[in-house]
């Protein structure tokens, strides 16, 4: 227990067992008199945690309570989260984390994570030495400019890396001491935040251009010096920056962008699974995207790889993918098309969103707009008119920004829709059937990717790793889950799913000559042995 003793041991969040210390341990570590009489098991402690948490009247109060638990007793927090993940995950991450980020400076209790500002330029490698852990394997970094669908939240966006790290630990067993949340606090253009007297971030307009890129460059290079085995996960960067940094660094260091690649993999997995319900062949699908940001374009690019794997040429694959923006269908007549969307331009007459559904008859409709209500009754009913079982995936989160609710999708499609969303929804009763809509949660993907890269010591994170992750995830969905209307597995199995994805990632790393670790034949047993189990 790193030579901790007495009160120091009792208050260390990584090593304390609180009231679970045994009589012998209380004697050995100088804890007699510092604890109540009872030796309480972790199970009993979890009961107490759940009872206290469930008494809270709002999700944000539960978030604050759980964050306080994490700060004082890591093992108890993670054991509670793992054993009750369907209840806890929406409180630790989406949708509650959106509100937590908006209120971050006002609910701040104790520093978590690592902050870098423009004033640290030239010294980032030096100040990284202030972080107490030496063996970091996963870094989640944001600059807070595009937090979920909420926009520029500056340093308040630190809630995202903190939440993602919790998911790495709970969903894939990466040890908490090997995870690091980072805020590249480059300022904020959110004037209301800068004028908030409680705001904790760098209180200046965002740096941009070469100055901003130099800050990111220095951070990435400093990580290579300080933590050469770490994989960097870019999170919630503005779309142009997200793609720029992915292209800039992905061929040089271990890194990926979850908004682009993680979202793409989980969405593709949902499409794969939907084919088991509709009876359609994946290679025959037409897929339509509402939105042209990182989630939509990233999913389209991964779908091209999936179509090619299914036997299509790249040209044929791109013809199966259609984009809608505010003006309607994106065609060769459009101007100012984003670079990532240009390969998907279609030679088709201009038409509205609703008209495009009638004419193209997409099998799958994906929303990635961040704008609530864009899948209105007209759109859903038209999808139902051209498909016996329309597939609608509303990716935007938090829940207040989703393109349509689960209830709307089932009602407007007469109960025929195959629905998934980026935010969680409660079961929906339509006539005599209860549907359990699936959440396309990136937690199914990125923890397993990180675990696989860590286990194999892969030099790079490649697109083929996300493609195989999508296939693995889709194959884990059971027939009973499908009968309930879900295209994703229950979250209770997420650690096993992460293990399966990690093993597949290791095989890709070996096949592509990227693995720097020598891996045993029994990959599953080896990877499971690496996974953190928070027990006393």
From TrEMBL:
| Record note on cofactor | Divalent metal cations. Prefers magnesium or manganese.
Pfam families, per the entry:
malic, Malic_M
| Named cofactor requirement(s) | Mg(2+); Mn(2+)
KW Metal-binding (keyword) present: yes
**Active site: residue positions:** 93, 164
Q: Where is the Malic enzyme N-terminal domain?
A: 70-250
Keyword Oxidoreductase in record:
yes
Keyword set, alphabetical order: Metal-binding, Oxidoreductase
What molecular function terms (GO) are annotated for this protein? malate dehydrogenase (decarboxylating) (NADP+) activity; metal ion binding; NAD binding
Superkingdom assignment: Bacteria
Question: GO annotations under biological process?
Answer: malate metabolic process
Instruction: Tell me the residue numbers annotated for binding a divalent metal cation.
Output: 235-236, 259
Classification via SUPFAM superfamilies: Aminoacid dehydrogenase-like, N-terminal domain (SSF53223), NAD(P)-binding Rossmann-fold domains (SSF51735)
Which sites bind (S)-malate? 146, 397, 441
What SMART domains does the entry give? malic, Malic_M
| InterPro entries membership | Aminoacid_DH-like_N_sf, Malic_enzyme_CS, Malic_N_dom, Malic_N_dom_sf, Malic_NAD-bd, Malic_OxRdtase, NAD(P)-bd_dom_sf
Give start and end of each Malic enzyme NAD-binding domain.
260-510
Family of the protein in this entry: Belongs to the malic enzymes family.
User: What is the name of this protein?
Assistant: Malate dehydrogenase (Oxaloacetate-decarboxylating)(NADP+)
**Biological source species:** Nitrosomonas oligotropha
Taxonomic placement: Bacteria, Pseudomonadati, Pseudomonadota, Betaproteobacteria, Nitrosomonadales
């Amino acid at each position: 227990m790193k030579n901790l003793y007495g009160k120091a041991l009792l208050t260390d969040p990584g090593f304390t067992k609180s009231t679970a210390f045994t009589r012998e341990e209380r004697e050995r570590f100088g804890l007699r008199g510092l604890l109540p009489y009872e030796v309480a098991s972790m199970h009993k402690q979890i009961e107490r945690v759940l009872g206290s948490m469930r008494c809270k009247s709002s999700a944000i109060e539960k978030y604050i309570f759980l964050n306080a638990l994490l700060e004082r007793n890591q093992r108890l927090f993670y054991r509670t989260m793992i054993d009750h993940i369907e209840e806890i995950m929406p409180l630790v991450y989406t949708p509650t984390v959106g509100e937590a980020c908006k209120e971050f400076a006002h609910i701040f209790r104790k520093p978590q994570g690592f902050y870098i500002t423009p004033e640290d330029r030239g010294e980032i490698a030096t100040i990284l030495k202030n972080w107490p852990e030496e063996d970091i394997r996963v870094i989640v970094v944001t600059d807070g400019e595009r937090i979920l669908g909420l926009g520029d939240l500056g340093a308040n966006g630190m809630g995202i890396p903190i939440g993602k790290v919790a998911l790495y630990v709970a969903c894939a067993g990466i040890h908490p001491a090997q995870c690091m949340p980072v805020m590249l606090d480059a300022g904020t253009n959110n004037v209301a935040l800068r004028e908030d007297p409680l705001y904790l971030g760098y209180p200046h307009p965002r740096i941009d251009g070469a100055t901003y890129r130099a800050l990111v460059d220095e951070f990435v290079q400093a990580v290579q010096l300080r933590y050469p085995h770490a994989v960097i996960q870019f999170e919630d960067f503005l779309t142009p920056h997200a793609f720029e940094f992915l292209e800039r660094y992905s061929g040089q260091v271990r890194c990926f962008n979850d908004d682009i690649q993680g979202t793409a993999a989980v969405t593709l997995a949902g499409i794969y699974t939907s084919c088991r319900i509709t009876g359609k062949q994946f290679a025959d699908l037409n897929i339509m995207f509402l939105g042209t940001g990182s989630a939509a374009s990233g999913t389209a690019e991964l779908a091209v790889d999936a179509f090619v794997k299914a036997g299509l040429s790249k040209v044929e694959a791109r013809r199966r993918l259609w984009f809608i923006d505010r003006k309607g269908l994106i065609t060769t007549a459009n101007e100012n098309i984003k670079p990532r969307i240009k390969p998907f331009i279609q030679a088709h007459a201009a038409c509205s969103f609703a008209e495009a559904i009638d004419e193209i008859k997409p099998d799958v409709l994906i929303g990635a707009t961040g704008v609530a209500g864009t899948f209105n009754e007209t759109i859903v009913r038209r999808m139902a008119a051209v498909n016996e079982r329309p597939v609608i995936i509303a990716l935007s989160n938090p829940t207040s920004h989703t393109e349509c609710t689960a209830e709307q999708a089932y009602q407007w499609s007469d109960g025929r829709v195959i629905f998934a969303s980026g935010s969680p929804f409660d079961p929906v009763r339509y006539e005599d059937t209860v549907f359990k809509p699936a959440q396309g949660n990136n937690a199914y993907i990125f923890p397993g990717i990180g675990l696989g890269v860590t286990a194999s010591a892969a030099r790079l994170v490649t697109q083929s790793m996300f493609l195989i992750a999508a296939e693995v995830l889709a194959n884990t969905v059971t027939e009973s889950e499908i009968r309930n209307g879900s295209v994703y597995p229950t979250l209770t199995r997420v650690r096993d799913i992460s293990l399966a994805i990690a093993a597949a990632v290791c095989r890709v790393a070996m096949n592509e000559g990227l693995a720097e670790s020598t891996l045993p034949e029994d990959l599953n047993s080896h990877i499971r042995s690496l996974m953190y189990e928070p027990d006393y």
